[in-house]
Design goal:
89 residues, mainly alpha
Length: 89
């Protein structure tokens, strides 16, 4: 997925640096194996804290909606898994 998703009108109220942070994560994680994902996500969380990047529930919902529009069925399944994990916290 290219960075075209970042130009979606529904994301206009989200700071560009937040979207660039997400795009970098997508790029960095694209070739990771399943067993590499947890350490990667932990490192991402730490990097987000260091850079003071956080997302409101409204921002997350908007981003997920945009990603779903452009995602393949496999990508949608992954998004659903992540969202299910998020709702359990």
């Amino acid at each position: 997925m290219q960075n075209d998703w970042m130009r979606d009108e529904s994301l206009k109220d989200i700071e560009p640096y937040k979207l660039e942070f997400l795009q970098a994560l997508v790029f960095e994680s694209s070739n990771l194996r399943k067993e590499q994902m947890l350490p990667f996500l932990m490192a991402v969380a730490k990097r987000g804290q260091e850079k003071k990047v956080s997302f409101s529930d409204k921002e997350i919902d908007a981003i997920v909606a945009v990603l779903r529009k452009q995602a393949s069925p496999d990508e949608i399944a992954k998004i659903e898994k992540v969202m299910a994990m998020r709702s359990r916290r």
